[in-house]
Amino acid sequence: VAAYGYVEEPNIAAVPGRIRIRVLVAPAHRGHGIGSALYDTLLARALEAGATELVTEAADDDAAARRFLARRGFAEYHRRIESRLALADIEPATIGRGIDALTDAFFPSGVRIATYHQLLLAVPDAARRLYELDALLWADVPFGLTGAVPSFERYQAMELADPDFLPQATFVALDGHRWIGLGALMNGRGFLLNSITGVAREWRGRGLARWLKLHTIRWALERNAPELRTFNDAINDAILG
Question: Is 133 exposed, middle or buried (0-12, 13-18, 19+ CB in 10 A)?
Fold first, then answer.
């Protein structure tokens, strides 16, 4: 495969007419017009589907890709930062002590953490509860675009049915019966991806996001994963901190 591309409706911040387009060309095959041909074909498909706006992304250090997009009228609207954690550098006992300290701190409030796998066994509408929590948290992510969240049915098909989704590595913070926080890992290729960490507004600033993060790190350590990765918005100082 020398290159591939696709167009799709965004699964986050969807609005009528907004289409996500991606064109990816292997380095050895760049500079021969393959990307241009793919883009033109995909653009025609997008227009047939009613596109009025195209969104895409490129790595900051890929100058050729940024030039390719600029020539086609794309303008930068947002930046995201990729962070990586080499798990060989992490002392498991430190993570365990951190979890224990926060477990003690949250004990008087009654807040606890369970995996989505556990909740599936105990909560009849667990899938919808996860969807509603995910939608609540994404509403506050400074993603750079605004728009609708996917329907519950699309969320089930695109997220929960994804073969890389890990119910046992999806950690939910619970205040009684209310779902108030989420920290989730997904399978990557040679790494685990921390796809989301978020907390309901009224619970922020108390260490709950850190508690969730520590659970995901411990889970990754126990599976001998080599690396954790995550993406965050460049303006989201709280989560980057």
Answer: buried
Query: Measured at the alpha carbon of residue 62, what is the angle toward residues 59 and 68, in degrees to the nearest 5?
Result: 100
Tell me the C-alpha to C-alpha distance, in Å, between residue 195 and each of 27, 45, 131, 136, 199: 27, 29, 14, 15, 14
Contact 241, 233 (CB under 8 A): no
Are the beta carbons of 193 and 229 closer than 8 angstroms?
yes
Closest CA relative to residue 186, chosen from 145, 119, 231: 231
Tens digit of pLDDT for each residue in 74-113? 999 999 999 999 999 999 999 999 999 999 999 999 999 9
pTM of the model: 0.89
What are φ and ψ of residue 108, in 5° steps?
A: -60, -25
Give the C-alpha distances (Å, rounded to integers) separating 104 from 68, 100, 113.
53, 6, 12
Closest of 94, 7, 91, 89 to residue 42, by C-alpha: 7
Per residue in 44-81, pLDDT (tens digit) is: 999 999 999 999 999 999 999 999 999 999 999 999 99
Helix (H/G/I), strand (E/B), else coil: 93: helix
Q: How are the residues of the chain apportioned to helix, strand and coil, as percentages rounded to the nearest 5?
A: 40, 30, 30
CB 74 within 8 A of CB 66: no
Give the closest residue to 172 by CA, choosing from 213, 212, 203, 132. 212
Residue (of 67, 41, 37, 73) closest to 55 by Cα position: 73
- Residue 36: Cβ-neighbour burial (10 angstroms; 0-12, 13-18, 19+): middle
